[in-house]
Amino acid sequence: MNQLLLIVLSVTTLSCSSIFMSEKVVKLRILHTNDHHGRYLPSSKGEYGMAARKTLIDKLRGEVKNTLLLSGGDINTGTMESDIFDAEPDFLGMKAIGYDAMAIGNHEFDNSYKVLKKQQELAGFPFLASNIFYKDKSTRPFAPYIVRELNGIRVGILGLTTKDTPPKASHTDAKKLFDFKDIIIASKPIVKKLREIEKVDFVIAVTHVGHYGSATSNGDIDLAKKVSGIDVIVGGHSQEVINAEVHNETIIVQAQDWGKYVGALDLEINVSNGIVKNSTYELLPINMKKKVKGVYQLTSEKIPADKSMIKLFAPYKKKAEKVGNAAFGSIDKKLIGDRKLVRSIQMPVAQFMGAASYEKLRFDVMVLNGGSMRSGLEAGTITRKKLHKLHPYGNTLVSVKFTAEEVFDYIAAVTVFALKPLVERDGGYPHFMGVKLEIKNNKLQKIVASDGSWSITKDVNGKVSSTKNNFILSTANFLARGGDSFPILKNHSTYYDSGFMLNGAMIDYVGKRGQIRAKDFAVSDRDILIRK
């Protein structure tokens, strides 16, 4: 009996030893950023910037042999210094840093497809999108995935872009040329192909869909729960810190935005079965600062800027400063445009934008969304850079000719967003120019021109009466296409896109006058939304 037990134990020990000896563990480091939005240069406080980012990434890459560097997308749109060059310095910077791949963000489609293709050429690395197809075709404009053969491990990387892109993009190519498929349906066959045909050991999804997604587009959590076989999701779009959450055995990470942080996920992977044995995750700040007793102080050790990157960006910076900082007007007092305020109440900064737009495209009423107003306008000199900061998008001014009933119904539909509880208001909060709205029992009752020259009323029986018959309603092309859930105007028979950019309208308005008076745009919430 003892002899038999000894034999059994010996065989068991040998078997365990063989399993242990056959186990192959490989280290993999995944570095990532997302939602760059034109921040190739450091902030005025010396925070972030791609030159310091390269210094840190070079160090991190040198520590682990198997290192991948990925981006969750949205390189475009956000700073004048980038936008005037169509993000050329940003993509050249990413190439110099050595990115392996990126997910295509919705703001990549603020430019034409032609510009986007040029950006990929400049970058020299693949833009991944497994759920974007040419319209009415089964082919894709971008690679659905890539495979990287590293030392001892074969990694598959697929890309996904939010299905909500067409209504969010500033350029019409997103809607005109492409179909954005459901990310769950699109990714399942790609993951299967990577596992069964490409024979990868490890699968990474680099995404621009947001952590929770939206009402019409799945997010990273749904992706992890509904698509088996994805080991890591490197996310973007929702611009938040996701510290290696695990859902359905899938690790999800996200590094806020603007290159403020580099995420570093270190993994020990058993290649024989693909199981992650150990993992650690850090969000490493790029010269981020916090205010201590009125003074901004670094939150970690200072990271020096890479000299080759400073040289690369120098000509872009010089030209941008010359173009952007040239004063061509002034304003006597500040127009307040704080993010929380423009998303919750009617603000003078919106009236300024409306006045500038009126000179390019005459209207009876204009509606803009609070999310399009990204800053106020400080007292003193006015520069293109300041106006670009106020509205950093390439939106054009559009109009439709409406009957009294049509304009009433449209204004009533968007007024609903303005009457939400304060905590629920967001970038879709509407600002009204040229009118005052009378509201009773949380419903629009009457629209009156700001100068009192006309009015539209709807009685209790739903009958609309007006002092004139036809109206011109103006807005931004983004909203006319249904952006921020606004009613779609583009299909209206009288729809007209002027081609005038909202930024250009503000520049021309200031340039024509030179001196701007803040009092000309002074309104309060009660001046426009009059509750009876």
Write the layout of secondary structure elements.
Layout: H1 2-22, E1 25-33, H2 50-63, E2 67-71, H3 80-83, H4 88-97, E3 101-103, H5 113-123, E4 127-128, E5 132-134, E6 145-150, E7 153-161, H6 165-168, H7 173-177, E8 178-180, H8 183-196, E9 202-208, H9 220-226, E10 232-234, E11 241-247, E12 250-255, E13 261-270, E14 275-285, E15 289-292, E16 295-298, H10 307-324, E17 327-331, H11 339-342, H12 348-358, E18 365-369, E19 380-383, H13 384-390, E20 396-403, H14 404-418, E21 430-433, E22 435-440, E23 443-449, E24 455-458, E25 464-466, E26 470-476, H15 477-480, E27 496-501, H16 502-513, E28 515-516, H17 525-528, E29 529-531
Parallel strand pairs: 1-2, 2-3, 3-4, 7-9, 9-10, 10-12, 17-28, 18-26, 22-29
Antiparallel strand pairs: 1-13, 5-8, 6-7, 11-12, 13-14, 15-16, 17-19, 18-21, 20-26, 20-27, 22-23, 23-24, 24-25
Helix pairs in contact: 2-4, 4-5, 4-10, 12-16
Q: What's the average pLDDT?
A: 92
In helices, the fraction of residues equals 25-40%
What number of domains?
A: 2
Would you give the CATH topology of the largest domain? Purple Acid Phosphatase, chain A, domain 2
Number of helices: 17
Principal-axis shape equals globular
Q: How many β strands by DSSP?
A: 29
State the fourth-level CATH superfamily of the largest domain: Metallo-dependent phosphatases
Largest sheet: 6 strands, mixed
Q: How much β-strand is present in the residues?
A: 25-35%
Cross-sheet strand order for the largest sheet:
4-3-2-1-13-14
Derived from helix and strand composition plus strand pairing, the structural class reads alpha/beta
CATH architecture classification of the largest domain? 4-Layer Sandwich
- Text of the CATH class of the largest domain: Alpha Beta
Terminal CA distance reads 96 Å
Q: Supply Rg.
A: 27 Å
Unreliable stretches (pLDDT < 50, length at least 5) are: 1-21
